[in-house]
Amino acid sequence: MKYLKYYISTITLIIAFHVCFLGEYYPTIFFFCFSLFIILGDLVVREDSAEQQYSKLYLLNLPMYLNFPLLTIILLISAFMLGDVPQNAFTNIISTYLNINILEVRDSLNIYDSIFLVAQMGLFIGIMGTVPGHELVHRKKSKFDMFMGNWLLALSWDCAFALEHVHGHHKNVGLPSDPATARRGENIYSFIVKATFKEHRDAWKIELDQMKRRNIPLLSMRNKMILGYLRSASIIILAFFIGGLKGALFFLLFSFIAKALLEVINFSEHYGLVRVQGEPVMPHHSWNSNSTLSSTYLYNVTRHSSHHEKANLKYWELRSYQDAPMMPQGYLAMLYMALFLPNYFHKVMAKKLIDWDKRFATDKERVLAAKQNKNSGIPALMESIIS
Fold this sequence. Notes:
globular
């Protein structure tokens, strides 16, 4: 059972594959069932803070490797469902091997099905693509893991993540220079745009510096940014052949949503936390969660303090810090709260930040926190300024 739980993403993708062909109402129903399963599961299932020992490590890596082909197939099917191309080689394959008339299925979908299918694919890329991709690109000594991680990130056009996150975010977390650390009271929507731009900018700087040291020309297939864009472009071209221009554009929309959702997660993981320049990264510089469904679906990235303490740890090696700052809800609930109820998110997190200032922050960090509280625009934080 301790191995099987990490196949929950794989099982979900297999279920989603079957749902793709059920027709009207099912994409809408699946979206709400999937979201409620995780959010309510986090509320009712006992929290998981166990630190287990494993011997069959290949069984822990396998679900992440399986995610890429399964997720890509489902995304391409969805691109076809949202496209407008007539019968082609893709429909013939589906008809021949699955005995399904996919054109009839597509024609049965209503506008709500289309909307929630787009939302679901964005969620899937974020949860089943970006998160395992994040895990694998930290394994710099394994060529295969880096290969799989970069292809998973290609689904969201986020080749910058493998560079900026590993070489930038882990060094700069909690500092004003870190694109992924949100200020207290910061607008979530402007944060998404700002963080996306700055991460790509910083990734290019990191890659150009590395190439300069190795005397590699800019226009080279050894340029990780160019190679990353080409990976993503090749997937879009495949989507074009299957779903036409409309299908390819919807695939791009999936990717955009997934990238935006990643930034919402970044927003939540370090929201309002501060660190003094030159001081080490400590467990209190990340928000954590022991919510079982979130932890299992997200390969324990919820144990975020442990991840930042030792970024080279595999997901099953991450520790649960009971005395670290904790999110008030599981990851998906926090994501929806930040995205759709931002004022409520700020209100809820204000209480957590006041507690963080008192219990976790150093004297120097309290000075930085007080400055952010003053400028946050959040009454509870402005009233709590520690002199």
